[in-house]
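About this split. The held-out portion is used to measure sequence recovery: a designer receives only the structure tokens and must propose an amino acid at every position. Recovery is the fraction of positions where the proposal matches the reference. Here is one held-out target exactly as it appears in the evaluation file.
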């Protein structure tokens, strides 16, 4: 009985480290406890208890003891409590889990929401939630993802042991709910390898054994994966759980894998049990052997064939529907016309064929010429899969869950979640269309091919994005297209990557909303202010390509110039007139009318459009003195009453206050964009 054990089975790196370090700690003679079960395997827990290490579930139970933090990790809040109660804390959090904690903490530092894909009640998920500074949504299925509220931006991460194919399906659903989705694949590489190997092995054996604790989420997911492929899949915790007659151990092949919390010794115990059974059933009677001896001698003189074998034969008969070929076997082979590649064969021709069936029920061997071409095509497909190369295909038919397509005559399946970056409502639009695909799963034995168009789009987009990043240099002026507007700015496509023009960088004047300056799909010229490749952020500016209003003000508003402006604010000492966005001048109360007035409102009001004369300009101090009176009585030659020293101080203070207010407003807007 062939027994094949998956290459990636049993303890993962994180669990092995936790168990080894716990055993070392037990040798210290201290009172050791683990906060929660060290691993989800009852046999390992029994061994831990036998050396004095027990699990506790309440912080108070760790008081005065050495506490071990298991590989699942804990929240910062629990860690803080343990530091106050325990004598010593040994942190054995799995490195992959620790990385997940770090990613969540960094992204959510500003309160941004996090979508955590995983089992809500799993200790790893519970611990990770504690690292989030904002809202956290846990989802386990695509349906749960689709029920989330619409979000502007969010981070998507996963429980480290979550199945990768389900993670991809949930991501497709999340992209319909989050406008700006940041994706971090936090699934442990050991989990991916373990699941991939389990799928491969399940498709090649008659029965499958999954060894591990029943409370282990990792083991349950392995079992579900194997069961979906091999119906005769059994999950056991130990060798004694294998029922009599589970498999025909004399004639059937058995595959075996184990969860990440399953120790090597337990896996060996199951293998030993199965091997012992095999030895008891490997007896063949001498009488039966002698009975078959004569037939064996006869068959030894004939060619031995098997399905899938390629042989060379001679055409001995040609009919309208079939061709008969002598291949040196006890019976001739038949090829149907549709399975012939060379249609003009004749008597005596030698052709290469593949054995389809050794016996079709009537004693004939069924052959095919076309299968050889298909096999060669499949071999090319395998090579492209191993190299990660793309393939060209044509959409054929919409089926449950996706689309079938043809790759050089070989049928492949594209799941609906792998057709595009976002949810596809009408899969029929891909029927008959050429598709560039990447093979993501291939079973040589079952000739099953699963491909993805989405992977191609993402990789090409990533390549384009990387190329775009390499071309960007801070300080350069580039062209881009406005893609979308938000309250805090405009996002611009720079040819594969997006940059942000903050609302304060759109114009030198105050802008309430980006729509006042730019519109979606508008092509704009921008200056790159800064580049943060690690955080994938690019700050852009339009206003830095425009002259500062006060730099050109002396040329536009020289002394004695007559200009038109709008009264925007009135004070006790005068009226501020806007000459253009960003430049205001002061008409002192003494310059508002030809006669003395008690208050400015006696001459002008906010919103009035007035014509004024420039008396003086000081660009360094950003001050312009204006006069209405000078235009009302141009013939008056008496000297204009100067601004009193006290009034001048008030004017300066007021202008400075205006500047400070504008700066504060700009800073607040920039902070909200961060």
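Reference sequence for scoring:
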């Amino acid at each position: 009985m062939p027994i094949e054990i998956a290459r990636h089975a049993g303890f993962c790196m994180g669990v092995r480290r936790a168990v080894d370090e716990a055993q070392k700690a037990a040798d210290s003679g201290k009172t050791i406890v683990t906060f929660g079960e060290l691993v989800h395997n009852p046999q390992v827990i029994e061994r831990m208890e036998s050396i004095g290490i027990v699990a506790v579930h309440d912080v108070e139970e760790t008081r005065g003891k050495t506490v071990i933090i298991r590989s699942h990790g804990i929240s910062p809040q629990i860690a803080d409590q343990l530091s106050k109660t325990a004598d010593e804390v040994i942190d054995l959090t799995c490195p992959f889990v620790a990385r997940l904690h770090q990613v969540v903490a960094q992204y959510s530092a500003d309160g941004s929401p996090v979508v955590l894909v995983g089992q809500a009640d799993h200790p790893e998920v519970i611990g990770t939630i504690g690292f989030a500074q904002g809202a956290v949504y846990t989802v386990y299925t695509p349906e749960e993802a689709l029920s989330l509220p619409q979000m502007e931006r969010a981070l998507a991460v996963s429980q480290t042991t979550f199945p990768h194919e389900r993670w991809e399906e949930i991501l497709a659903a999340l992209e319909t709910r989050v406008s700006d989705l940041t994706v971090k694949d936090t699934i442990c590489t050991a989990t991916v390898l373990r699941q991939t190997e389990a799928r491969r092995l399940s498709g090649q054996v008659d029965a499958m054994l999954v060894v591990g604790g029943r409370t282990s989420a990792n083991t349950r997911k392995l079992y579900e994966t194997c069961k979906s492929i091999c119906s005769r899949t059994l999950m056991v915790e130990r060798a004694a759980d294998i029922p009599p007659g589970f498999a025909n151990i004399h004639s059937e092949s058995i595959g075996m894998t184990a969860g990440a919390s399953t120790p090597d010794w337990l896996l060996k115990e199951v293998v030993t049990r199965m091997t012992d059974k095999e030895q008891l059933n490997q007896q063949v009677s001498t009488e039966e052997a002698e009975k078959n001896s004569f037939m064996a001698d006869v068959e030894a003189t004939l060619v031995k064939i098997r399905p899938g074998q390629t042989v060379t034969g001679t055409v001995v008969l040609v009919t309208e529907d079939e061709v008969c070929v002598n291949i040196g076997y006890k019976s001739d082979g038949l090829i149907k016309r549709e399975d012939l590649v060379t249609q003009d064969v004749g008597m005596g021709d030698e052709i290469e064929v593949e054995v389809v069936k050794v016996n079709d029920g009537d004693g004939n061997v069924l052959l095919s010429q076309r299968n050889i071409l298909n096999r060669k095509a499949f071999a090319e497909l395998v090579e492209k899969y191993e190299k990660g190369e793309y393939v060209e295909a044509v959409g054929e038919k919409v089926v449950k869950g996706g689309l079938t397509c043809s790759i050089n005559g070989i049928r492949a399946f594209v799941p609906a979640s792998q057709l595009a970056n976002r949810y596809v409502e009408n899969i029929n639009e891909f029927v008959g269309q050429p598709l560039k695909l990447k093979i993501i799963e291939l079973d040589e034995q079952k000739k099953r091919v699963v491909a993805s168009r989405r992977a191609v789009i993402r990789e090409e987009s990533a390549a384009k994005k990387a190329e775009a990043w390499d071309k960007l240099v801070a300080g350069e002026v580039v062209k881009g297209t406005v893609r979308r507007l938000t309250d805090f700015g405009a996002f611009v496509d720079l040819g594969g990557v997006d940059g942000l023009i903050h609302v304060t960088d759109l114009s030198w004047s105050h802008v309430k909303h980006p729509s006042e300056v730019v519109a979606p799909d508008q092509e704009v010229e921008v200056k790159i202010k800064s580049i943060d490749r690690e955080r994938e952020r690019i700050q852009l500016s339009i206003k830095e390509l425009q002259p500062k209003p006060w730099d050109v003000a002396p040329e536009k508003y020289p002394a004695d110039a007559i200009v038109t402006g709008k009264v925007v604010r009135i004070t006790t000492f005068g009226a501020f007139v806007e000459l253009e966005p960003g430049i205001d001048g002061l008409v002192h109360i003494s310059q508002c009318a030809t006669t003395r007035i008690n208050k400015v409102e006696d001459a002008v009001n906010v919103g009035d459009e007035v014509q004024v004369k420039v008396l003086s300009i000081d660009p360094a101090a950003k001050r312009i003195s204006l006069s209405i009176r000078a235009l009302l009585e141009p013939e008056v030659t008496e000297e204009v009453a100067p601004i009193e020293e006290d009034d001048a101080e008030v004017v300066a203070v007021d202008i400075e206050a205006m500047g400070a207010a504008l700066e504060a407003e700009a800073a607040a807007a920039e902070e909200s964009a961060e």
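Annotator remark: The first strand starts at residue 3 and ends at 5.
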